[in-house]
Specification:
Layout lengths: L12 H10 L3 H18 L8 E9 L22 H19 L5 E6 L3 E9 L5 E8 L4 E7 L2 H40 L5 H16 L4 E10 L9 H25 L6 H5 L7 E5 L4 H15 L5 E7 L7 H9 L6 E5 L8 H5 L4 E7 L5 H13 L3 E8 L4
Parallel strand pairs: 7-11, 8-9, 8-10, 10-11
Antiparallel strand pairs: 1-5, 1-6, 2-5, 3-4
Helix pairs in contact: 1-6, 2-6, 3-4, 4-5
């Protein structure tokens, strides 16, 4: 069969409606799937955020405060380089070290909070001007902020930065202590009086110098997902997803209708020229009238009275005893008798060769297929049996 003569299947709207009634769950399922796909598409659902911000605060230990006991003002010790330059050096050199050791990419920010001040004294000079005495209280904190794809990466990077900042602080403080100790030693050499106090201060500076570590104590931590796991989804997205699911469901139903071979209604049997004549449909709702119309059409197909009509199922496992009882109740003059038969696959050679009988193929609605009907008709026809026609019944008959 060429492409121009190939049969194009007809689309029966009633068949589509039958598919919808029997497989109606396809529509809500596809709608839900469509909405779910659009929701996942726009909200970018993830099991974990795309990036995380880890912020840790550290407080440096005041390692020179004890010098005040020996008459040395801790403020007289000047770190070299200053803490700003210490951070500049650490920030410039540490990324290369991290790249070599960890081979990860992070975004790092280091800040230092301003020290707190306390008002200790207010005095008025002889001219009436007020003089304020301020004192720094506590140590300024170091705040290290890291942004990366995983929290563990930030923890490792921050640990490296803390060690390098501590090392830089220790070196800067030690230089400041050493510079002050050198100045005291120089003064003590040039002093002819009592230098015991200077010697005591020099010893104290030497002791603090050897114990300086630049240690920083952990204060607190904050972890924040920088990209939300679920973003807001517009109502139009849900509408589009629902429409998409509905269209998909209709396409599936249309495909099922095209490939569906089951007999859904009488129109399928009427329009097939390769099947025996259609005699009627017997439904549950209008059973008595349908049986009357079918028996009348059946009698019209029998040329002589007294014939025996055999109902033969087209579906394996189907029973036709109920149909035989219904039709027998509508015959009063015994002009025709009804019998039931087994499926053609269960019939013997003698039964198929009994040419004195006439057959009616019983098609079960929504269960028997066109293939079942054609096969039963062909088997009986090849055995030279007479087929009066077809009757469509519901499974409850």
């Amino acid at each position: 069969m060429g492409p121009l003569t190939k049969e194009i299947p007809e689309i029966d709207l009633r068949s589509i409606w039958d598919i919808v009634r029997m497989r109606g769950w396809i529509i809500p399922l596809c709608v839900v799937i469509g909405i779910g796909l659009m929701y996942a598409q726009e909200s970018n659902l993830q099991t974990a955020p795309s990036s995380v911000l880890v912020e840790k605060t550290y407080e440096p230990r005041d390692e020179t405060s004890t010098l005040s006991i020996y008459g040395i003002d801790p403020a007289s010790i000047k770190e070299f380089p200053t803490f700003q330059n210490q951070l500049e050096t650490v920030i410039a050199e540490t990324p290369a070290i991290i790249a070599n050791e960890l081979d990860i990419s992070v975004s790092m920010t280091i800040t230092r909070s301003d020290p707190q001040t306390s008002l200790t004294h207010i005095a008025t000079d002889k001219y009436g001007k007020q003089q304020l005495t301020m004192l720094n209280v506590g140590q300024p904190n170091y705040i290290l902020s890291c942004q990366a794809s995983q929290e563990e990466d930030c923890n490792q990077v921050i640990e490296i930065y803390v060690k390098r900042i501590s090392s830089a602080r220790a070196a800067a403080i030690q230089r400041g202590i050493q510079a002050l100790a050198d100045q005291i030693q120089s003064v003590s050499k040039q002093t002819t009086g009592d230098i015991s106090q200077l010697q005591l201060q020099q010893t104290a500076l030497s002791t603090v110098l050897s114990s300086t570590t630049g240690e920083m104590g952990f204060v607190n931590e904050r972890v924040e997902a920088r990209s939300g796991t679920v973003s807001t989804v517009k109502a139009s997205t849900f509408l589009f997803g629902g429409v998409f699911g509905l269209v998909l469901a209709l396409l599936i139903i249309l495909q099922l209708t095209i490939v569906d071979d089951e007999v859904r209604n009488e129109r399928i049997l009427r329009r097939r020229s390769d099947l025996p004549v259609f005699l009627g449909e017997i439904s549950k709702l209008n059973q008595d009238a349908d049986v009357t119309h079918f028996v009348a059409a059946l009698i019209a197909q029998i040329p002589t009275a007294g014939n025996s009509v055999v109902f033969i199922p087209t579906l394996n496992g189907q029973t036709v005893s109920g149909l035989v009882g219904l039709c027998s109740q509508h015959i009063t003059n015994s002009q025709i008798t009804f019998e039931e038969s087994v499926h053609i696959d269960e019939m013997t050679v003698d039964q198929l060769s009994a040419q004195s009988k006439t057959y009616v193929l019983v098609v079960e609605k929504n269960h028997s297929t066109i293939h079942n009907v054609k096969r039963s008709s062909q088997v009986l026809s090849r055995s030279n049996n007479r087929i009066l026609g077809l009757v469509l019944v519901s499974s409850s008959i």
